[in-house]
């Protein structure tokens, strides 16, 4: 690809975020419930109209204009060819690009980004972009490409790598000059074909659902970001300039308002974190559009930091706002349309990324060159080795012939030596060959990752198909231009009304002015309505925020209370001295208790290979054989010597005799109280209470037989007991207490 083509595609320096809206069809449930359709989509003009279902025709339809709008009949292919295709082409020229799907849960964000799996015609933007990228590369000439992907998820302000095995590990954001914001240690996979990259996506999606208890719930609350980085360089030009295009494909969390009020503790934290990224995104968009404040709050959330370049920076950006057509979604749909309408005004400054600092392609190229050098060096050495012949020892030739007896033996020695040398040489050569083969394999493996047109990728599409694709592209482009023209025409018509101020007759003037008045009045009404709606929305947001703030304040107060009452002041101060704020992370951390720079002194190593330090005396003793096991070592062998006792047995306190007597009285064992179930009247309490249980048992034993005999008499007497009143009042045992009365 020549430089001019790059320059031509470099595009304008200032480019607005493209906003397209897609309205999904009514689903079966909505149809069954008989919900009304309140959204009208006009693809030819790029206009969406929405009617308030609560207002019986009094309120006018609200109308929004976008770069493109897609109705229920729109196909995945149409949307891709018209919006995403040109952006992906730019990525292949070295631009950054972002496509994100925004909208309420269930409106088709995942459908737009990923599509439904089994049907190829239902493939979403991500899968189609893979096809486009690899098809493009396969047709390129004299170019080398390296494609790698990463897949991450942001859930409750924590970044997780969807391609890593460790699902619990969270990742941090870093910023570096020349690279921008990136996720530290995020894994990335080099992909050689659309199939490979698809596999990566499915693995990531599977990981996404593993961590979630309820997949639907989880995916509607988390942001998934699929990143494709394409590095490219010319292979024939002398100076190999490397360009890099980065594509972020984002399926955002559902934009519906999460209820914050009433939640406390963990739930509050969760609720405030879920929508934090989305509200931060809204704030960033507002700040960018407003333009009054130079500070853009990118740092407020992880999502906005990752999207820093995509919003107002070096990137081409497309926002796909997804909406539902049914009446019960009216509020959310309107909010989404307003959000999208605001985003239209963001201006980006995309440029081709040349010579990036973190180019993996350069590393690969350099490594391949190094390995090739090594291989060449090995080949040279092998040749040298082969060139040196296995020769006889010169010294042996000078030997006297007369020493014939020795000669035979030296000859065989010589033979053996030569054979050994030969063997060694063979072995060396074999080793060399093995090493060279390994090197070659490594080089081939690395080169296979670098993609070149027509070489690595088998391009199945034939010329006809290519031509068809090209035509489809052209149609898409034309359609886009048509919508643009219509929008321009409408604008011109409006302004033309103001310009035409010469009229032939008075009646004509009246007609024109009435028409103009009507139009302006309608506009005034709709703007008034808009102001009212926006104020309402703003107030609702404010109420929510205030409620969240109150809850957080309460939480903070409790924490302060705990700190003030349960943590000693000096401990608190020590902690305060250790605590630091990490600007790059936006989080607090504690400095370690022991500074890192203190080197702990190591115990000296035992000298002379002994297990313990040994005295010279010990060493001599060992050598003289006067040793038993520890004699040579500095250990004193002494009997245990008991220490004199320093403690005494416990003796109770001295108690005054009067108190002692009182205590005795209080501790004295007393008779058990016997509570009888018999009626109060028939018992002589005083006498019975004083009778001990032992006495009563004795009595029972003695009277055992007598009692049985008299049982009939007793039963006859019982009637009398009930009827006769008690002669003396019942006596209860009295509390004695410690103090005598
Ligand atoms: P989200 O990701 O926004 O929560 P989904 O993409 O899961 O929503 O869509 C919800 C359902 O609606 C899915 O069953 C999907 O197939 C269907 N759907 C969404 N948009 C469309 C569309 N444009 N055409 C047909 N079906 C759609
Ligand atoms: Mg989804």
Automatic annotation (TrEMBL):
Region (Disordered): 390-412, 686-741
One Gene Ontology biological process: microtubule-based movement
This protein's name: Kinesin-like protein
UniProt family annotation: Belongs to the TRAFAC class myosin-kinesin ATPase superfamily. Kinesin family.
Start and end residues of each Kinesin motor domain: 16-346
Taxon lineage: Eukaryota, Metazoa, Ecdysozoa, Arthropoda, Hexapoda
Family annotation (InterPro entries): Kinesin-like_fam, Kinesin_motor_CS, Kinesin_motor_dom, Kinesin_motor_dom_sf, P-loop_NTPase
Protein role: Plus-end directed microtubule motor that may be used for anterograde axonal transport and could conceivably move cargos in fly neurons different than those moved by kinesin heavy chain or other plus-end directed motors.
Keywords: ATP-binding, Coiled coil, Cytoplasm, Cytoskeleton, Microtubule, Motor protein, Nucleotide-binding
């Amino acid at each position: 690809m020549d430089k001019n083509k790059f320059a031509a595609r470099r595009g304008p320096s200032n480019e607005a975020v493209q906003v397209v809206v897609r309205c999904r069809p009514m689903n079966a449930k909505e149809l069954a419930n008989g919900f009304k359709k309140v959204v009208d989509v006009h693809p030819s003009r790029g206009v969406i109209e929405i009617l308030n279902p609560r207002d019986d025709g009094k309120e006018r339809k609200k109308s929004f204009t976008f770069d493109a709008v897609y109705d229920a009949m729109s196909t995945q292919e149409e949307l891709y060819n018209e919006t995403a295709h040109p952006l992906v082409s730019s990525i292949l020229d070295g631009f950054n690009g972002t496509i994100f799907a925004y909208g309420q849960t269930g409106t088709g964000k995942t459908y737009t980004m990923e599509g439904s799996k089994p049907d190829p015609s239902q493939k979403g933007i991500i899968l189609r972009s893979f096809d486009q990228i690899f098809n493009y590369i396969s047709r390129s000439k004299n170019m080398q490409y390296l494609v790698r992907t990463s897949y991450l998820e942001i859930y409750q302000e924590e970044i997780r790598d969807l391609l890593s095995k460790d699902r619990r590990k969270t990742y941090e954001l870093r910023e570096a000059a020349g690279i921008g914001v990136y996720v530290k240690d995020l894994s990335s996979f080099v992909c050689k074909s659309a199939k490979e990259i698809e596999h990566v996506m499915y693995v990531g999606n599977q990981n996404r659902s593993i961590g979630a208890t309820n997949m639907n719930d989880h995916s509607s609350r988390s942001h998934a970001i699929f990143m494709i980085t394409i590095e490219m360089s010319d292979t024939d030009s002398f100076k190999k300039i490397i360009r890099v295009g980065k594509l972020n494909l984002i399926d955002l969390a559902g934009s519906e308002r999460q209820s914050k009020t009433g939640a406390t503790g963990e739930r509050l934290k969760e609720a405030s974190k879920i929508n934090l990224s989305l509200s931060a995104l809204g704030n960033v968009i507002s700040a960018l559009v407003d333009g009054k404040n130079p500070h853009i709050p990118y740092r407020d959330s992880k999502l906005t930091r990752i999207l820093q370049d995509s919003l107002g920076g070096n990137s081409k950006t497309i926002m796909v706002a997804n909406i539902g057509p049914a009446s019960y979604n009216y509020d959310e749909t309107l909010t989404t349309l307003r959000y999208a309408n605001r985003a239209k005004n963001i201006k980006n400054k995309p440029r081709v990324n040349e010579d990036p600092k973190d180019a993996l392609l350069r590393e690969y190229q350099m490594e391949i060159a190094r390995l090739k050098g090594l291989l060449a060096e090995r080949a040279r050495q092998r040749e040298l080795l082969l060139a040196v012949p296995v020769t006889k020892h010169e010294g042996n030739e000078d030997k006297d012939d007369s020493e014939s007896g020795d000669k035979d033996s030296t000859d065989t020695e010589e033979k053996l030596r030569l054979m050994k040398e030969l063997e060694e040489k063979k072995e060396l050569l074999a080793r060399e060959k093995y090493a060279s083969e390994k090197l070659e394999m490594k080089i081939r493996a690395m080169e296979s990752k670098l993609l070149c047109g027509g070489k690595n990728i088998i391009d199945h599409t034939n010329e006809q198909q290519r031509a068809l694709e090209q035509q489809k592209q052209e149609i898409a482009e034309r359609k886009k231009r048509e919508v643009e023209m219509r929008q321009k025409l409408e604008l011109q018509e409006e302004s033309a009304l103001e310009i035409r101020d010469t009229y032939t007759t008075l009646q004509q003037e009246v007609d024109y002015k009435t028409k103009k008045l009507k139009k302006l009045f309608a506009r005034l009404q709709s703007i008034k309505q808009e102001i009212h709606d926006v104020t309402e929305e703003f107030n609702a947001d404010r109420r929510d925020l205030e409620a969240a703030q109150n809850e957080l304040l309460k939480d903070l107060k409790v924490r302060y209370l705990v700190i003030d009452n349960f943590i000693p002041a000096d401990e608190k101060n020590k902690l305060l001295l250790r605590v630091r704020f990490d600007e790059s992370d936006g989080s607090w951390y504690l400095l370690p208790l022991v500074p890192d720079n203190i080197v702990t002194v190591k115990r000296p190593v035992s000298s002379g290979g002994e297990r313990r330090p040994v005295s010279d005396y010990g060493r001599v003793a060992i050598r003289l054989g006067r040793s038993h096991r520890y004699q040579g070592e500095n250990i004193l062998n002494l009997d245990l010597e008991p220490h004199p006792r320093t403690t005494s047995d416990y003796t109770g306190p001295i108690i005054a005799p009067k108190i002692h007597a009182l205590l005795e009285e209080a501790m004295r064992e007393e008779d058990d109280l016997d509570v009888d179930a018999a009626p109060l009247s028939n018992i002589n309490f005083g006498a019975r209470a004083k009778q001990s249980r032992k006495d009563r048992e004795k009595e029972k034993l003695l009277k055992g037989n007598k009692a049985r005999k008299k049982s009939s008499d007793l039963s006859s007497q019982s009637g009398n007991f009930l009827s006769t009143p008690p002669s003396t009042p019942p006596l209860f045992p009295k509390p004695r207490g410690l103090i005598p009365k």
